[in-house]
UniProtKB/TrEMBL annotation, chain A:
CDD domains, alphabetized: fer2 (cd00207)
Keyword terms, alphabetized: 2Fe-2S, Iron, Iron-sulfur, Metal-binding, Oxidoreductase
Sections of the chain in a coiled coil: none
SUPFAM superfamilies hit by this protein: 2Fe-2S ferredoxin-like, CO dehydrogenase ISP C-domain like
2Fe-2S ferredoxin-type domain location: 3-79
InterPro entries: 2Fe-2S-bd (IPR002888), 2Fe-2S-bd_dom_sf (IPR036884), 2Fe-2S_ferredoxin-like_sf (IPR036010), 2Fe-2S_ferredoxin-type (IPR001041), Beta-grasp_dom_sf (IPR012675), Diverse_Oxidoreductases (IPR051452)
One Pfam family linked to the record: Fer2_2
Name of the protein this chain belongs to: (2Fe-2S)-binding protein
Domain of life: Bacteria
TrEMBL record, chain B:
Pfam families, A to Z: Ald_Xan_dh_C (PF01315), MoCoBD_1 (PF02738), MoCoBD_2 (PF20256)
Residues of the signal peptide: none
Domain Aldehyde oxidase/xanthine dehydrogenase a/b hammerhead per the UniProt entry, residue ranges: 24-133
Keywords annotated in UniProt: Molybdenum, Oxidoreductase
SMART domains the UniProt entry points to: Ald_Xan_dh_C (SM01008)
PANTHER family, sorted: ALDEHYDE OXIDASE 1-RELATED, XANTHINE DEHYDROGENASE
Protein name per Swiss-Prot or TrEMBL: Carbon-monoxide dehydrogenase large subunit
């Protein structure tokens, strides 16, 4: 049994047949081939599957694909616009905000959401924003600096 | 903020080359690989820690419309694959045939058209078990009435695996006999799990026509895996290609060969299709390489004024149901015998006994540098216990006992030769950075108020840890895994236009090899890093070597890279001599990419010019082959010995048991830093590990062997709010035997940091008379410690 859903992903509309139990993360990865969104734990703890749903970060391992029907999803593949990196992406490069790269897409999407809603966050606000997402490589230090770098770029722009 | 030396021609800060794909979501992790016709595998696992298998009925699963194959131990027995060798010369069940020996053990494997159907079919397999009593606590494994776990092995009567000793027992006992002071402490390093965010997985693709197996797998040791597959499956080694793509963290979890990998291979052979198997998080935490589980009993002999003379240690090592630890064969307890740490001792001795329990196999993982985490934690805890008993300041006690710079190279009482170090300088820098005296004054004021009866607020604590690491295995003479010597190859080819390709045996799991190894070549040859492609993680494309773990990449493959680049440089010299029509002896390297005529530096040729000439019709001297390339195999003469001084400041709330890490200062000396930004990043990650292990991470079990840490809801990882902003310092003491003076650093902080955190918490609780407390120091554990129960006697306690 499948259900037809229409989801806008990174501004592009996709219509597909899915099993009702299909997780959004699997829909994005397996049906749309958007493998930049990762999977890590099944219990909403690690956050490597973080995407935005109508602009708000969600953990796509605990959202059913059918729940995204007629909604808008943002993934890491949509951060770069017209060949121009998002300041958050550039910040992660500048400040060595990633090592293995597995948590990075989710971290960047949360960072993007944070700066959209709070252009000049304090270090504590940045740490709180990403506290639902794990990183095993960076000890979070350079992720925080990456977000700060992006914030500075955007403020001065 | 990180600054960048632009554009680097060698060592220094530069952006990572690999970031371009990762920030766009364009990395290729094993689960991102899709092959036409690919099927999906799932593993049925044991719900019991110890049980006899009475029967397995797979008929209903086989009848599932989307199931292509169901494989059991019986299937594998027919292929002689039901058991496989471990990396410690033991055997491990691929799929259980007789008994299950830990909860989560592999029992059957389903191959289906999609992963959801594969999981559905697992539910349709009916296994009848006859439960048996389980051995959960390693300290009871050798009891005469303990159930025998490995009754599959001939002559295995109990649960004993090995006894291993190091050091001079007689000299140590003599030092203890005449000691003015002896302190003793039982210390548990509990079972933890590396928990990389990407779980383990593989995609096996067996081509029946060519007989070639292509194995995509997130392994840290692709070449070693290929050899083991050849030995286990009887496939010819040249027909096996292991591709280790981008890896989402490893930390030692991805060194062993897991049953799921073998099942994926069998599944592909049986179905004729590529078969992917990715474990889920619970499978990862319950069945793959855990870390530690060392029950240690340590003693320190000292003079009354605090000079440590000897250390004596006994360990019960819990290896789980199969001895699958991955470490050099000669050393069943890994490098634990570096437990004398950074101190100048007369004598030391350790006895380690390895035992089987009904728990997942493993033990050597999680950035442990082959058990140095356990060793460093033990000695740093013991030094603080000694300070407590003597009423001495722990910083002063350490200063008094640290090896001095003039003692290097230093031969340790347990047989190591430390290559280089200046320990007091590093400790003093850390103390200065943290403002040690000022924090002690603040603490004294709080304690005074506390003693006067005002017990509001938190108690500050300061913890110090000084560690010495031993990383970069081999030398191959002493170190092998399954008979494979721990030496690594490198190949470097400079193309006609002066662009180079470096092929190395080690595999990155986030360490940034594509950047740092290009920097090494740039440093040696003057070719910009952007003109150097680093190829790794594919056995068809790279020279043989043992892989990335134990912080061995830079000490071994980094050295191989420098050596192979120097070989190319020497070849270039001969070509340049032909180009310039001068004797090669009259040429000198200008350190920036040119061979120049001595005394006439405007006369010279760049490496790029030489590369083109080497591929041209230029007549070359006799014996000089054309082209510009070289290969090497680097066999390290010794390990490298990075070290560091860490100071942690905590605030402990005795009312709630909550620990807040206020500050963490880490001074690391890893010799010459190729890319300081990457080094600092590695240290940051390891420091977070220390917070995790000291305060929250624990794979606990109940008395029946049920795993209580099987999800991230139970096995807690540190987040951004538990971690402080790390304060890093550095000293540089080059390794005298490494070609570029570098030492490994990937695991330094994981090794050094847990003791600093625990020492800080114990120090905070001094007003309660607390002398020791077992990790992890969760609020509940801190509460128990305050109530007078510092040891974790019950493995179920969380």
């Amino acid at each position: 049994m499948t259900t037809r859903i229409t989801v806008t992903v990174n501004g592009e509309e996709h219509t597909a047949e899915v099993e009702p139990r299909t997780l959004l993360v699997h829909f994005l990865r397996d049906q749309l081939g958007l493998t930049g969104t990762h999977w890590g734990c099944d219990t909403s703890n690690c956050g490597v599957c973080t995407v935005t749903l109508d602009g708000t970060p969600v953990k796509s391992c605990t959202v059913l694909a059918v729940m995204a029907h007629n909604h808008s999803v943002g993934t890491v593949e949509g951060l770069e616009r017209d060949g121009k990196l998002d300041p958050v992406q550039q910040g992660f490069v500048e400040c060595h905000g990633l090592q293995c790269g597995f948590c990075t897409p989710g971290m960047m999407l949360t960072a993007r959401w944070l700066l959209d809603n709070n252009p000049d966050p304090s270090e504590t606000e940045i740490r709180e924003a990403i506290s639902g997402q794990s990183c095993r490589c960076t000890g979070y230090e350079n992720i925080v600096r990456s977000v700060q770098w992006a914030a500075r770029q955007e403020v001065t722009r | 903020m990180t600054t960048v030396d632009k554009p680097s021609m060698g060592f220094g800060r530069m952006h990572r080359k690999e970031d371009a794909r990762f920030i766009r979501g364009r990395g290729t992790y094993v689960d991102d690989v899709r092959l036409p016709g690919m099927l999906h595998g799932a593993v049925l696992r044991s719900p019991f820690a110890h049980a006899r298998i009475v029967s397995i009925d797979t008929r209903a699963a086989e009848a599932h419309p989307k199931v292509k194959a169901v494989i059991t131990g019986k299937t594998l027995e027919g292929l002689k694959l039901a058991w496989m060798p471990t990396l410690s010369y033991d055997t491990q069940a691929v799929l259980a045939t007789d008994k299950v020996r830990f909860q989560g053990q592999e029992v059957a494997f389903v191959v289906a058209e999609d992963k959801y159907s594969a999981r559905d079919a697992l539910e349709l397999i009916d296994v009848e078990y006859e439960p048996l009593p389980a051995v959960v606590d390693a300290r009871r494994a050798l009891d005469p009435d303990a159930p025998v776990i490995r009754d599959d092995k001939e002559n295995q009567n109990g649960n004993h695996i090995f006894d291993w000793t190091a050091g001079d027992k007689a000299a140590t006992d003599a030092a203890f006999a005449r000691a003015e002071v002896v302190v003793k402490q039982d210390v548990l390093y509990p079972r933890v799990h590396p928990a990389p965010l990407e779980t383990c997985g593989a995609l096996a693709d067996f081509d029946k026509v060519t007989g070639k197996l292509t194995m995509w797998c997130n392994t840290q040791a692709p070449h070693a895996h290929r050899t083991v597959y050849a030995l286990v499956a009887g496939l010819p080694e040249h027909k096996i290609r292991v591709i280790s793509p981008d890896i989402g963290g490893g930390f030692g979890n991805k060194v062993p060969i897991y049953p799921g990998y073998v099942c994926a291979i069998v599944g592909s052979i049986v179905t004729g299709k590529p078969v992917k198997w990715m474990e889920d998080r619970s499978e990862n935490l319950m069945s793959t390489g855990f870390a530690r589980d060392y029950h240690m009993s340590g003693e320190v002999a000292a003079t009354r004024d605090g000079k440590i003379t000897a250390v004596r240690v006994k360990v019960i090592a819990d290896h789980g149901a199969f001895n699958g630890t991955a470490q050099p064969t000669k050393y069943p307890a890994g490098f634990f015998h570096v437990f004398t740490g950074s101190y100048d001792l007369e004598a030391a001795h350790c006895e380690v006994t390895g035992v089987y329990t009904n728990k997942a196999p493993g033990g050597v993982a999680y950035a442990c540098s082959f058990r140095i985490t356990e060793a460093a934690y033990l000695i740093e805890r013991l030094v603080d216990v000694l300070a407590f008993d003597l009423g001495m300041d722990p910083a002063q006690l350490r200063m008094k006992n640290l090896l001095r710079a003039e003692q290097f190279p230093y031969s340790s009482p347990t047989g190591w030769e430390y290559d280089s170090g200046d320990y007091p300088r590093a400790l003093q820098l850390a103390l200065d950075m943290v403002g040690y005296d000022e924090i002690r004054r603040e603490q004294a004021a709080v304690r005074e108020r506390w003693a006067a009866g005002d017990r509001s607020g938190t108690l500050p604590g300061v913890g110090i840890s000084f560690f010495t690491e031993a990383v970069g295995a081999g030398p191959r003479k002493h170190m092998d895994i399954l008979g494979l010597g721990m030496a690594d190859g490198a190949e470097l080819r400079v193309h006609p236009t002066g662009k180079a390709v470096l092929r190395i045996s080690v595999q990155s799991q986030g360490q940034g090899h594509e950047t740092t190894y290009a920097q090494i070549v740039a440093h040696e040859l003057g070719i910009p890093p952007d003109d150097i492609e680093v190829v790794h993680g594919d056995t068809d494309q790279t020279p043989f070597g043992l892989g990335t773990y134990g912080s061995r990449s830079t000490p071994v493959s980094g050295a191989a890279t420098a050596v192979v680049a120097r070989k190319v440089r020497e070849r270039a010299r001969l070509v340049a001599s032909a180009m310039l029509e001068v004797s090669a002896d009259d040429l000198e390297w200008d350190g920036a990419g040119r061979w120049v005529v001595r005394g006439s530096t405007e006369q010279g040729r760049t490496i790029q010019e030489i590369a083109l000439a080497a591929h041209s019709s230029l007549e070359l001297p006799d014996g000089v082959e054309g082209h510009l390339d070289a290969t090497t195999v680097y066999n390290p003469p010794n390990l490298t010995f990075p070290f560091g001084a860490y100071v942690c400041v905590v605030d402990v709330d005795p009312g709630t048991g909550q620990v807040k890490v206020r500050r963490f200062v880490a001074v690391d000396d890893c010799g010459v830093r190729i890319n300081p930004t990457i080094v600092e990043g590695q240290v940051h990650g390891g420091l977070a590990d220390g917070i995790g292990m000291a305060l929250m991470q624990l794979i606990a079990f109940d008395e029946d062997g049920n795993c209580l840490g099987a999800s991230f809801m139970d096995y807690l990882l540190p987040t951004s709010v538990e971690c402080p902003s790390w304060e890093l310092g550095e000293t540089v003491t080059p390794s005298p035997h490494h070609p570029i003076g570098a030492k490994g650093v990937g695991e330094s902080a994981t090794v050094g940091s847990p003791a600093a955190v625990v020492n800080a918490v114990v120090d905070a609780l001094k007003p309660y008379g607390v002398r020791h407390a077992d990790m992890p120091l969760t609020p509940a554990q801190v509460w128990r410690v305050i109530q007078g129960s510092p040891l974790r006697t019950d493995l179920a306690i969380t």
